[in-house]
Structures are given as C-alpha cells and as structure tokens.
Amino acid sequence: MEPAVHNLLENSARIRPDKVALVQGDLRVTYRQVNSRANRVAGWLIDEGVLAGERVVMLLRNGIEYLASYYGILKAGAVAVPLNCELRPEGLGELLAELHPAAVICGSEGEQLLHSIDSDTFGARLLLIKDPSRSFSHRSARVFAWDEVVHDAELADHGLATNAPTLASIVYTSGSTGTPKGVMLSHRNIVSNTCSIIQYLGLNENDVQMVVLPFFYVMGKSLLNTHVAVGGTVVVNNEFAYSAPVIRQMAREGVTGFSGVPSTYAYLLHRSPLAAFRDKLPALRYCTQAGGHMAREIKQRLLETLPPHTRLYIMYGATEAAARLTYVEPELLVEKIDSIGRAIPGVTVRVLDERGEDVAEGEVGELVASGPNIMLGYWNDPTATEKVLDGNGYHTGDMGYRDADGYLYVTGRKDHLLKVGGHRLDPQEIEDALMATGELLEVAVLGVDDHLLGKRLVAVAVPLQENPSDKLLLSRCLARLPRHKIPSEVRFVAALPKYPSGKIDRTACLEAPPLDVPKL
C-alpha cells in the first residue's frame, strides 16, 4: 500500500524517536514529540466530529504548532489548508467562503486576523488557538486553547487508512501569474515528489536544513516533508530580513542545506556576511534555488562566494507539481548555466506546440509536465483546471526549448510577453541584461500603457550603490541588447514588493516608493 504523507512522520518517529526534528531558537523538539502532538491534534479533530475530506485551515507561522497541525490534520483524514497569516481580512474572508472549513488552527497573528473578518464569511465551527486572547462569543464557533488540547503525553498513532489518491492538502499559488488558486494535492502527489527530491539531492538522516521560506508556500512544504521523511532536522528561522543572524545560526547548527528563491540569494550575496563566513560553513553540503528565474549574474556570484565544497542545485517547479519538476546537476551548472535542467526522477517534461505535438530540438514551445506529482486540479474551479490539465499533462504556461543534450531552457511566459512598438518582447531577457551590469540587487521590467507604442518599458530596480545613474545603467545594457529592448525609464526603489514566498509582486512594483536619487 502506498504511504500517506503523515506516514513519513510516523516512520521517522518509530525509527528515531529521540532524534531532533525541529530547531527553533533554543527550542529542540524530537520526532517522538512532534508525532505525539500531531496525534493530539488528530484526536481532537476526530472527537469533535471533523470528517474525512473536510478542510482545516492553518494560520500559523513556521514552528512546532505548524508541524503538529499539518501532520495531525492528515492523520485525521482531513485536508490541510495552510494560509498566510498576514493576509488582509477581506482576502481571508474570500478564501474561507470558498473553502467552508470545519476548523481553523491559528496563533496570535491568525487570531487577530480571524477576529476582524466579516461574520458571514467566517464559516468554521471549531477554533484551536495558541494562547487565545480574544473573545469569539459573537461567532458560533467553539474555541479551544492549544495547550489544553496538544501536549507531549504519549498517544498511539490513530492508524486511519488513507488512500494515496485522496486529497491531502490545498495549497494556494502566490498569485504571481494571476488570482491565487487553490491547488489540490493528493497524498500520492506529495509523497511521490518528496521521494524524488530525496533521491536527486541524496538526503539522509544527517541532513540539517535551514528553512527561511514559509511552510504554507509549496517549496517550504517540500523542505519539511523531505527532511521529515529521511529523519533529518529542520532549523526554522522566521527572521530572514535580518540575514546576518541566519548565517551565524547556520554555522552554529551545522546546517547541511539551504534553500531559497532568487531574491533570497540576491540578499544573501549583497546584504549578509555570507562571504565572510565562507570558511565557517564546513557542513553546508548543498544549496537549492527554485521559485522563479534567477539571473546568470547571481548564479555566477554564488558559485564564487559559496564554500568550494557546497553544491548549488538550480531547480524549476510549480505549486501544481507538488513543488518540483526539473533540476540541473551541480557538476554541469557552469556548462548549462542558463538551463532549468532535466526532469526529476519519475517526471516527464515535454516541449509542445499549440497542437500538443513535440517540437524539434531548439524550437520554442510550451513546457508540459506529467507524472504522479501533478495536481488533481484547482479547488472549486473546473474551468481553470481544464485550461492547464489535459491528456498531455500540466501545461505550465512557460515557453522554452530543449537542447541537443536534453536540457530544458525557459524563454519566458506566454502571458508575460509585452508588445512594444510592434515588437514582442520578453521581460526576462531584459531583466537578465540589466542584472548582468553588476549595478543592481534586483529588477523587474514592466509594460506601461503608451498611446504611441501601445506599451513602453519601465525598469523598477534596486541599486547596489548610492547615487545610481539610470543613464550609466542603460548605456551598459546597449552592449547586450538592441535599442528597441532598452527600457525608456528606470525607477530606482529601496526594495521590490514581494509575495510571502519571496517572489516579486510585479503588479505592485510600479507603486513602490522611489528612492531620492540626486539628478546628475
């Protein structure tokens, strides 16, 4: 029988009960303790009448409460729905109305958010709150305190049989390519992808993963599941904005793996003591990057700055794929520096034309993936599901090609192309050229309405130096790009707006407050 997601925790708790599963500051939690608390959550849900398949929303930051809730919900046969506890009240209200959850589990931030939303969209009949401080008497929900329900007293695994195709979790996309959608992932989707990642990264019980990405984001979820599956340790640090303490903690805890999105690594390179700690990270075996395209300049700088024994994995995936689709082997990264690699074990990625037929080597088409990790569909949205799932698999919306060695390259997204003065332009190419100047921390190229050109190009950029010059920046781009691809304007800002996953919020970039740059 195929394992369910929570079996990953149960197996590690049985084999290594006293191994540390979670480190958070001074807190150390063993596998026995995580599993016991997850059993308490499961028992509470079952005792309170939550049925298999009902949704349970989690409004929790990374930590022991998240681990116990996530695996406990799955043990109870319910569906885990992790949400960002920094959502706006109206956004959370819309999601609750869409999900109709049986219960909500939250910490202090989530409690405040729940208390502020409109009662018509509240929905849930049960609340489990860590250190409750507010009254919910105006709601019909029954409120329980976390510490009264969840503790370390031994409680046997419930042993509920869960079929692999059963829905395990609904994970919302970041919204970077449109309105966030609830991606339905089965136990099979998650476990198959977990096993594949373990295989190509060579993970084992000695691995210690530094986690700065939120667990409600699909990449964060994969970091948790992979390390729980092998009996490793996750070190949680929710304060990556202060990157120096993160680097020091990596050295102190003997971290073997670090994972991030492109902006994570840009900030590590330019606004952290990573280079100074190069000789103080002897255990750092690998780093992984996913969550969008990373400029060649950042990859090259990382290869120069990371300890020489640290392997850098460039990866590609999607929430709809339970996290991962492709990777580049570290030993081939220099040769294939612009590639997203080849499909991970158990997955197939093809390049198809509009008729669904394979295109020739070097020819551009859409990347379409198939395998046991591909989602069941979007929650309550059959129309959106039909647009991306068909007999060929999951249509990623990314355009690209395959080289003679079978390595894949992404050239841009179908929906991100800009038409400027009769030319079809891909912002990614222009962003790469701007980053290659070495003048920027990060940049987004956007199209702004223009009555003559239709669109004109605007670069919203974070400079590395004080008093940046837009003229100097653009003149350096002319060596790499034809004139019609050069932005007509550069707006310097202190930071690009981000989604909680760390991906750039392109829609909000034009509203970012400008830096006060003196005119030369």
TrEMBL record:
Question: Which Pfam family, giving just one, matches this sequence?
Answer: AMP-binding
SUPFAM superfamilies assigned: Acetyl-CoA synthetase-like
GO molecular function annotations of the record = acid-thiol ligase activity
User: Is the Secreted keyword given for this protein?
Assistant: no
Tell me if Transferase is a UniProt keyword of this record. no
Classify the source by domain of life. Answer: Bacteria
Q: Where is the AMP-binding enzyme C-terminal domain?
A: 429-503
UniProt keywords (A-Z) are: Ligase
AMP-dependent synthetase/ligase domain segment(s): 9-379
The family database entries (PANTHER family) matched by this protein are listed as: LONG-CHAIN-FATTY-ACID--COA LIGASE, NONRIBOSOMAL PEPTIDE SYNTHASE PES1 (EUROFUNG)-RELATED
User: What is the designated name of this protein?
Assistant: Long-chain-fatty-acid--CoA ligase
Q: Which organism is it from?
A: Citrifermentans bremense
